[in-house]
Design a protein that fits this description.
The chain is mostly helical. Among the domains are: 98 residues, Winged helix-like DNA-binding domain superfamily/Winged helix DNA-binding domain (Arc Repressor Mutant, subunit A), CATH 1.10.10; 61 residues, no CATH class. 56% of the residues lie in helices and 7% in strands. The strands form 2 sheets. Strands 2-1-6 form a 3-stranded mixed beta sheet. A 3-stranded antiparallel beta sheet has the order 3-5-4. Helix 8 runs antiparallel to helix 9 and helix 9 runs antiparallel to helix 10. The termini are far apart.
Length: 287
Amino acid sequence: MDRLALSLLGGFSARLESGTHVPIPTRKGQALLAYLACSPGVSHPRDSLATMFWGDLPQCHTRHSLRQTLFVLRGTLAFPAASLLRADSTSVSLDRDGIIVDTVEFERLTATDTARSLEQAVGLYRGDLLAGVSGGTPIFEEWLRGERERLRALAIRACAKLAELQRAAGLTEKAICTAQRALTLEPTEESVHRTLMRLYMAVGRPNAALRQHQQCVEILKREFGVQPDATTQALLRQISSSRRGSRRSTPPSRRPTRRRRFSSSSSGAEPDSRALRDPRPRVALDE
C-alpha cells in the first residue's frame, strides 16, 4: 500500500510514499489533517474538532463547516489513500498504518540516545511545526504554540546530546556544527554555549572560545538581564588561564646574528670590496 507521507516540521507538505505530491486544497483542511496526523489512530470527538477549528463561528455552523472540510479531504484522499480518513457520526481519526508523519518519527528518534538516531532526528527537524499554517482560532493557535515549543525543546536537546556524543567520539568539527545548530534554535541555551567553548579549545581556537563566551554574556543580558552562571564563569577562567600559560610557554623568537666580514691586510687576503665602499667607521678587534 502506498502510504501518505506528511511533512509538518517547517511547513506543510503531503505526498505519497512513492513521491507523488498530494495537494490539500485549503488551509483549514491542512490544519485539520495535520492535527489528526500528530496523533494517528486516536479518535477525536466531532464537537471538539468543530470548536477547535470553527469556534469563532456561531455554533449552528461549526459542525456543518467540519462536515464540509471532511468531505473535501475524503475526496482529495480517495484515490491515493481511500481508507486513511475514518469518520462516523461522533468521531474522526486517521488510520495509523496508512500514514507516515515526520513529527511522529522525530519524537521516536529523540527518545533513543544514540548518535545515529539523534542525527536522523536533527535532520528531520526543518523548522517549527506547521510554519506558515494557521487554523484561525485561538484554541487551535494555543495548541499549535504549545506543540511548537515542545518539539523545539526536543530538537534543542537532541542537538546538544548529539554534539556531546560527537565530541566524545573525536568528531570535533561535526560537533561544532551540531552545537551551532542548537543555538540557532535557542540562542539562550547556556549549556550549549559552554559546549561550543570547550569544542573551540579542543581544536586550538581559544579566541573563538572567548568570543563564544562574550556572545553568551550579551544574549543572556539582553533576554533575561542576567549574567552567565557559575559553571560558565569557571570555564571562562579555565580558558583564560590556559591561554596565558600557552603564551608563557612559547619561546621568544631570536633574530639571526649577522657576522660582519673584516679585511686583514696582514693576512695577505684580498680586501672585501663592500668594506672599502662603506664609509662608516670600523670597530677594530683585539688580536
